[in-house]
User: Which sequence fits this backbone?
């Protein structure tokens, strides 16, 4: 798209596009954001993921200029933005409530920022038309926000925040108010729009699935601190802490002690006579207390004893949750521990091979075990 | 076919009660005044001629005339009084708006704990009699009143200023008395406004005052209209304030009405003055209602 060429030039000195440097935000005694440093590259679709109250929205609002950092600096495209008011930042935000101006038509809402910049009327009209087309609302330009559905309002909000061709687009829970079907569809539209415009997107969300689908990188936040930054694949498959492992998807966590380190790390669980073997990693010593995270879908469940020697245990099916595409089993081990296992329903059978109260074997690869020391 | 029997239920009573109230205490007096306005004054008891005369037919004959209304148009006094009332009401409304808007805005933006205390301060004067508060202004504004004494004491003036019994004191009294009626609807409107609209305006490039003119002000128009109507309409017919604080040249229709009734004892002319004032006020009320309906349409 030629309309956005102005924002797709390269950074002057190769430094990251957005740099958050030791930023802390306190509200009285409460520390909302605690010494966060973060670099975001140009054209990234970056997600700030965390439970409500983790500081992700505060961080986003600081990028928009709506909150001032108590300490630290924020640089956008090499320029220090820490003390620049929101109306002078090359940044636009899509608010969670959409914050559409109720007294203006869709067109006027989209043109709002352009009029503020005193852009010539002909250009404004052209840009508004482009934006309406981009979000597929061509025939709704004359309507007022209250005459639109939730999904249409969401798109107007998106169009309005994109209209000024910001260097950076901030999205605060952009899909939270939409129903599931619309949310999935809109996710892909968002990705397409980001691709088309080439604008750097930062999205705040509490929905891990949304973050994984949308973004190129995710920062998982908890209590004002970034727990882990990585691609969706990295944070899901190689969580760095118990918090991240537990927050993203579901996980079985086993607390134990490192017994030996040979080809793999052997972990002994205290009560059970269960030994887990995981792949080697750094920073692990014998005798150390660690946690092992195993994703439910990495465990296989069978009636017969599997052939592997390591990483298997026996249990009894306590609960089966049929979810259509997959079934989730709650298996009770001998020591009373519950293990969650999910397996895809590949065959459409009326009769299940595994049923309630069946005695089953669970097994998994050493690769499936993630050793967590935090 | 059997007709529906009319039954008195609790529901009918509840719905009927306010209508009965209006019928007795508003519509009936109005009808009496309307009838009076077509009569002629008499030195008699009651002091007016009959409007309907019973001639033995099914309906009485109408013997009233429109002379009183014609008289209102021929004598400058009434037209000037109407115009002057409207002028005073308009100026007072604008003054109330200029003073009340920043106050309402300040209260709406104040931190939660302060807000109720500030609102309380706006409502507090209502706990004292209106009449006493207007008299208090006489004490403040008269020649040897508080204000003049303070100014004399500070050496700012050499002799007392004539503050009382002129249009200035009337405006002071009206603006003071009616300010809460401007502030309260404006506050209700401004407090309701979503903060994220202002943040989003700032995000799209508005400095604070631009956000105010482009977002806050247009969104508060229903509040401005409601407040202005609540001030304008009663001020047009205001009698007490011009009577107590005004001077001989303060001409307002409420005062003229009073004089017709109690000084001239010309009930029919007084009634026609009242009816004409009502008609004059119905127009802004209709406009007000029109805007209110529009407002409730756009904010469902």
Assistant:
């Amino acid at each position: 798209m030629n309309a956005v060429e102005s924002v797709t030039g390269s950074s002057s000195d190769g430094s990251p596009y957005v740099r958050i440097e030791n930023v802390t935000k306190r509200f009285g005694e409460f520390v909302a954001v605690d010494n966060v440093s973060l670099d975001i590259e140009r054209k990234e679709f970056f997600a700030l993921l965390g439970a409500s109250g983790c500081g992700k929205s505060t961080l986003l609002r600081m990028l928009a200029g709506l909150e001032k950092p108590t300490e630290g600096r924020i640089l956008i495209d090499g320029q220090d933005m820490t003390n620049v008011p929101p109306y002078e930042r090359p940044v636009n935000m899509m608010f969670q409530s959409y914050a559409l101006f109720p007294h203006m038509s869709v067109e006027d809402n989209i043109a709002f920022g352009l009029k503020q910049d005193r852009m010539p009327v002909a250009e404004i009209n052209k840009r508004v038309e482009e934006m309406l087309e981009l979000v597929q609302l061509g025939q709704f330009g004359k309507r007022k926000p209250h005459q639109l559905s939730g999904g249409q309002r969401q798109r107007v909000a998106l169009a309005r925040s994109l209209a000024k061709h910001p260097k950076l687009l901030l999205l605060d829970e952009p899909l939270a108010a939409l129903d599931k079907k619309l949310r999935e569809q809109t996710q892909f539209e968002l990705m397409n729009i980001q691709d088309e415009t080439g604008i750097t997107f930062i999205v705040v969300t509490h929905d891990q699935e949304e973050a994984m689908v949308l973004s190129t990188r995710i920062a998982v936040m908890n209590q004002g601190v970034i727990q882990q930054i990585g691609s969706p694949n990295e944070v899901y498959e190689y969580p760095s802490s118990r918090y991240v492992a537990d927050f993203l998807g579901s996980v079985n966590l086993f607390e134990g002690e490192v017994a030996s380190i040979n080809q793999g790390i052997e972990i002994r669980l205290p009560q059970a006579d269960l030994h887990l073997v995981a792949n080697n990693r750094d920073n692990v010593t014998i005798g150390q207390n660690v946690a092992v995270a195993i994703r439910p879908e990495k465990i296989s469940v069978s009636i017969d004893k599997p052939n592997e020697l390591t990483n298997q245990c026996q249990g009894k099916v306590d609960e089966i949750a049929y979810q259509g595409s997959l079934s989730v089993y709650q298996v009770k081990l001998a020591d009373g521990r519950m293990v969650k296992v999910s397996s895809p329903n590949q065959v459409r059978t009326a009769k299940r091979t595994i049923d309630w109260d069946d005695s089953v074997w669970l097994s998994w690869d050493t690769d499936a075990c993630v050793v967590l020391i935090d | 076919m059997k007709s529906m029997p009319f039954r008195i239920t609790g529901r009918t009573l509840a719905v009927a009660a306010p209508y009965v109230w209006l019928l007795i205490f508003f519509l009936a007096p109005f009808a009496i005044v309307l009838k009076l306005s077509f009569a002629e004054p008499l030195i008699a008891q009651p002091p007016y001629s009959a409007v309907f005369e019973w001639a033995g037919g099914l309906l009485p004959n109408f013997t009233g005339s429109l002379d009183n209304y014609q008289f209102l148009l021929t004598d400058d006094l009434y037209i000037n009084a109407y115009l002057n009332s409207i002028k005073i009401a308009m100026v007072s409304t604008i003054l109330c708006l200029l003073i009340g808007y920043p106050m309402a805005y300040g209260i709406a933006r104040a931190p939660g704990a302060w807000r109720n205390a500030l609102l309380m301060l706006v409502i507090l004067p209502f706990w004292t009699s209106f009449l006493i508060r207007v008299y208090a202004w006489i004490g403040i504004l008269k020649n040897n009143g508080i204000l003049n004494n303070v100014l004399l004491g500070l050496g700012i003036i050499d002799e007392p200023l004539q503050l009382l019994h002129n249009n200035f004191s009337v405006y002071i009294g009206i603006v003071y008395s009616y300010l809460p009626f401007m502030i309260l609807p404006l506050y209700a409107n401004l407090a309701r406004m979503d903060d994220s609209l202002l943040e989003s305006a700032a995000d799209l490039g508005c400095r604070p005052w631009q956000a105010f003119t482009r977002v806050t002000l247009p969104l508060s128009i229903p509040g401005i209209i409601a407040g202005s109507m609540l001030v304008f309409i009663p001020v047009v017919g205001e009698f007490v304030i011009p009577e107590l604080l005004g001077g001989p040249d303060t001409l307002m229709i409420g005062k003229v009405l009073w004089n017709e009734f109690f000084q001239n004892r010309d009930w029919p002319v007084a009634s026609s003055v009242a009816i004409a004032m009502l008609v004059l006020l119905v127009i802004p009320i209709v406009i007000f209602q029109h805007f209110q309906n529009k407002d409730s349409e756009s904010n469902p």
Q: What stands out?
A: Strands of chain B lie at 52-53, 61-62. Chain B has a mean pLDDT of 89.
